[in-house]
Amino acid sequence: MSYTLYWTEEATKTFNQNLEYLANDWGNQVVNDFLDRVDEVLELVSANPSVFPLHRLSEKIHKCIVNKRIILYFMIVNERQVDLLTFWNTYRDPGKLLS
Predict the structure, then answer these.
(1) pTM for the whole thing?
(2) Are 64 and 40 in contact (CB under 8 A)?
(3) By the 8 A CB rule, do 52 and 63 touch?
């Protein structure tokens, strides 16, 4: 059984910000590679979210590395739903992550 993935406002916003950055600075091929990787990651999270490590400051938030600069943070809500919280760009201030 796979989990339903719920995109929070923040996840949608940060996903689109990262996509826009890639499109403007790196071009279509990098955008397509990113989209393919996100699809792969979301399939893995949907299939078995508990295999991903917990964030070191939270016992509820898991993390999944999308690429070397983007980390997907998510939370298992119940046995059927996972909330996608943010597509965190590692260039951002880490102090703002859990705020």
Answers:
(1) 0.90
(2) no
(3) yes
Contact between 58 and 48 under an 8 Å Cβ cutoff? The reply is no
Side-chain-side CA neighbours of residue 84 (13 Å): 27
Residues 6 or more apart whose Cβ sits within 8 Å of residue 33: none
Radius of gyration of the CA atoms of the chain, in A? 13
Q: Which residues of the chain form beta strands (DSSP E)?
A: 4-7, 61-67, 70-76, 81-89
Q: What is the pLDDT of residues 24-70, one digit of tens each?
A: 999 999 999 999 999 999 999 999 999 999 988 889 999 999 999 99
Fold of the CATH domain 4-90: YaeB-like fold (3.30.2310)
Rounded CA separation 92/86 (Å): 12
Note whether 31 and 23 are within 8 A (CB).
Answer: yes
